[in-house]
Amino acid sequence: MTSQRSTSGQRHEQARIGIMPPEILQKRDPVAVRRILESLPDWFGDPGAIDNYEMAAADIEFVSIVAVDSGNVIGVSLTRRHFRESAELHLIAVDPMARGRGIGRALIDHVAADLRNDGCMLLSVHTVGPSFENEPYAHSRAFYRATGFHPLEEHNNLDWAGPILILVRKL
User: Fold this and answer.
1) Which DSSP category does 107 fall into?
2) What sign does the CA torsion over 115, 98, 102, 140 have?
3) Is 113 helix (H, G, I), strand (E, B) or coil?
4) DSSP states of 37-82 as a string?
5) Alpha helices for the chain (secondary structure H)
6) What confidence tens digit (pLDDT) does each residue in 114-133 have?
7) pTM as predicted
8) 61-71 pLDDT per residue, tens
C-alpha cells in the first residue's frame, strides 16, 4: 500500500509542478500550428511558410500528431506518406516554453511507432543544411541525429534557395 500511495503522490506532485508527460494524440489543430510556429521566429520567420504549414495541418494528406499538456497543444508534427515504405516528417515544432521536456522526441517516437506498425520502413526529414551556418538549425540537426536520423544528402534550391539536408531514419 505504501508504494501505491507514494506513486500516486508522486504523480500528483508531478502534475502540480507541470512535469507530467504530455498526452500524444492524433488531432488537427491548424490554429495551434500557427501559434507555435509564430513563437519560433529563428526557425519559422517566413509568414508564407507559416501559412503553408497551417494549411497542411488542415489537409487530410498529412497526419497531424499533437502533444497536449493541461488541455493546451504544446507540440505538433505533420507527416506525409509518399509510398507504403516511406514517409516524410513534414513538420515538428514544440512551444518554446515546453522545450527541453522531451516533447519533440515523444512526438517523433509516436510517429515512428505508428508508421512502423503500418508497414512503413523509412522516415525522412528536411532541414537547413550544415553548409549554411545557423545556430538554431545546428540545434535542429543535432536533435534529429539524437532521435535516430542520419544525414543522407544536401541539396540547394529544394525547399528554399539555400541548402537542404535530407535525413533518414530506419523504422
Assistant:
1) H
2) positive
3) helix
4) HHT-TTT---HHHHHHHHHHHH-TTEEEEEEEETTEEEEEEEEEEE
5) 2-16, 30-38, 47-58, 103-117, 135-146
6) 999 999 999 999 999 999 99
7) 0.85
8) 999 999 999 99
